Amino acid sequence: MNTHLEKSSYYPGEDVRGMIHIKGGNADQNVDRIYVKLMTEYIREHDDKKFSEDYTIAKIKVSDSLVVKQGDKLQIPFEFPLPLETPLTLSRQPVWLHTGLDIEYAIDPKDRDFIEVTPHPYASVVLDAVSQLGFRFKTATCEHHPRLGRGIPFVQEIEFYPGPEFAGGIRELELIMYLESDRLTVLVEVDRKGKGLSGWLERSFDMDERQSRLILEHNDLKKGPAYVAGIFEDLLKRQMR
Fold first, then answer.
1. Which pairing describes strands 170-179 and 154-161: parallel, antiparallel, or unpaired?
2. Which of 38, 40, 72, 102 is paired with 94 by a 20 to 30 Å CA distance?
3. Cα separation of 18 and 4, whole Å?
4. Mind listing the pLDDT tens digit for each residue in 164-200?
5. Helix and strand totals (H; E) in the chain
6. Which positions ≥6 away from 218 have C-beta within 8 Å?
7. Three-state SS for 93?
8. pLDDT in tens, 150-164
9. Which residues, in sequence order, are bridge partners of residue 50?
10. What digits encode the pLDDT tens for the residues 15-67?
11. Which residues lie across from 168 on neighbouring strands?
């Protein structure tokens, strides 16, 4: 069994299309169903130790029960929208499709295909905006945090180094983005020099929401990175006070 994707790079919300190729063996086989899982991994901490844990973002049923006859060659198409909560593959964050067959009394054959996940157009506006303010990408990690995950057990935290304008007061900028069909919510955290990182992943998120949470509507994002950069600049200057 092999899965062939139409392409290897997608952004959240975009349709993923592919074809599953199945070749029959030496005897007829009953297949209960064929499925595709969209998977990633996140970091969980326990007893001061960190380890990676796989997570299934979505499971898509491709077909119901069927019989794969001896020597058959089947091609089964599939299509599904990449979920909006799919993390970006920044800092080598893995995202892959796991294709499997449910076959009674047999080892389930599996196929794994890694994909690149690029920013949704909304997220691209935000990333371009912080870049215009001089911030440089540092790293991105998926961390276990069910409360902030909004239905999934982790968040993707994207960190930036400050540029010259903010280097005197900010050591690091951290963003968590929640993508919706008509808006983008961004949690913003700054590591202020001499004050220490507030660290929303280590404590309750009880900061003034006006200074820590941005809700960017579709119309805001349509105005482009320069407009959004102005919103970020105002918020960051308030947080630095």
1. antiparallel
2. 102
3. 5
4. 989 888 889 999 999 999 999 999 998 876 554 445 4
5. 4, 16
6. 122, 182, 183
7. coil
8. 899 999 999 999 999
9. 45
10. 999 999 988 878 888 888 899 999 999 999 988 899 999 999 999 999 988 88
11. none
State pTM to two decimals: 0.88
DSSP notation for 135-160? -EEEEEEEEE-TTTTTTSSEEEEEEE
Contacts of 96 (CB under 8 A, 6+ apart): 38, 39, 40, 112, 113, 114, 115
Q: For 163-197, give the DSSP string.
A: -TTTTTTEEEEEEEEEE-SSEEEEEEEEEETTTEE
Backbone angles phi, psi at 216, to 5 degrees: -105, 110
User: Which residue do the tokens 């994707």 mark?
Assistant: 5
Q: How far apart are CA 107 and CA 194, in angstroms?
A: 57
- Measured CA to CA, the distance from residue 18 to residue 36 in angstroms comes to 10
Q: Please tell me the chain's helix, strand, coil percentages from 3-state DSSP, rounded to the nearest 5.
A: 15, 50, 35
